[in-house]
Automatic annotation (TrEMBL):
This is Alpha/beta hydrolase fold-3 domain-containing protein. It comes from Nymphaea colorata. The active site is at S161. Residues 74-300 form the Alpha/beta hydrolase fold-3 domain. One of its GO terms (molecular function) is hydrolase activity. It holds the Pfam family Abhydrolase_3. It comes from the Eukaryota. InterPro entries: AB_hydrolase_3, AB_hydrolase_fold, Carboxylest/Gibb_receptor, Lipase_GDXG_put_SER_AS.
């Protein structure tokens, strides 16, 4: 059989990897351009290149301006199992527009490199590099939408699903902890970060928890194998923040944390497990949790008009403005 047509790996309905290395993404491929003035919200957006060598980039969102007021700054990481989706897709472009409208924050949505072409932890290193770039935008030559309109003392990182995993690791590195990302990673100087929002975060483990079904396990394993071929299993510290070798949760480098959980999400119990471990870790920040009963993983992205999704958006906006 022609290697270009012979499957090597598959994440059913999402991703195909062929023997010759070709990758076929079945979802999350559409892209939309930025807008100088979103017709429904008044939010402006533009794309920026952070690292020309790697293609690391972002879309910056600016709320309608009001005098000299500086807005909180949101750094957002999209989901997609580390393998699909984009900061520039309609799904995320529309959602971040809505979140900026509701919160009044300046937002920077990060376009990190995807697996399997760039295996995990490439995504994690990209997101940390992007975060450092964002918080360094002051003085001559800085990106004006950030330098002129964002309050760099009120920075929140957030992400959903795989993006929640990325946001967690960025927050840990902001506290000076990066052990889970490889022994070759030097500890950076701690960076001031006010809050982190983990939305249905992609956490997993070998522990047998109540919501563990064969379908969920198969999907998680398929994504994780495609994203990180060198992984050490369900208790890889990148995937399991409570695994042996993971940095202490007490080092989470922010003042507040919100863990958003969906009641019918296959990761529900692990996300609760993380929240309970964080609150019992000796971390000095303030943690809160919100579970939306009866809803599936990232329901709010695919059904943003639902009342529960609207309430979740307001919760995120409130958290950002308390930063």
């Amino acid at each position: 059989m022609d290697p270009s047509q012979e499957l090597d790996q598959e994440v059913p309905e999402y991703l195909r990897i062929y023997k010759d290395g070709r990758v076929e993404r079945l979802k999350g491929n559409e892209r939309v351009p930025p807008s100088n003035d979103h017709h429904a919200t008044g939010v402006s957006s533009k794309d920026v290149l952070i690292n020309p060598a790697t293609g690391l980039s972002a879309c910056i969102y600016l709320p309608p301006l009001s005098g000299n007021h500086r807005s909180p700054l949101l750094v957002y990481f999209h989901g997609g199992g580390f393998c699909i989706e984009s900061a520039f897709s309609p799904l995320y472009h529309n959602y971040i527009n809505s979140l900026v409208t509701e919160s009044g924050a300046v937002a920077v949505s990060i376009e990190y490199r995807l697996a399997p072409e760039h295996p995990v932890p490439t995504s994690h290193h990209d997101c940390w590099e992007a975060f450092q770039w964002v918080v360094s935008q002051t003085g001559p030559g800085a990106e004006p939408w950030i330098a002129d309109h964002a309050d760099l003392g009120r920075v929140v990182v957030a992400g959903d699903s795989a993006g929640g995993n990325l946001a967690y690791h960025v927050a840990m590195r902001a506290g000076g902890a990066s052990a889970a990302l490889g022994s070759g990673q030097a500890l950076e100087d701690p960076v001031k970060l006010q809050g982190v929002i983990l939305v249905h975060p992609f956490f997993w483990s070998s522990a047998r928890l109540s919501c563990k079904t064969s379908e969920v396990v198969a999907l998680i394993h398929a994504f994780w194998k495609a994203a990180c071929p060198a992984n050490i299993g369900d208790d890889d510290p990148i995937l399991n923040p409570l695994a042996v070798g993971s940095p202490l949760l007490s080092r989470l480098g922010c003042q507040s944390a919100l863990v958003a959980i969906a009641g019918k999400d296959g990761m529900r119990d692990r996300d609760w497990w993380f929240y309970e471990a964080l609150t019992g870790s000796g971390w000095k920040g303030e943690a809160e949790v919100d579970e939306v009963e009866g809803e599936e993983h990232v329901f709010h992205l695919f059904n943003p008009e639902k009342e529960k999704a609207r309430l979740l958006l307001k919760l995120f906006a409130s958290f950002i403005n308390r930063a």
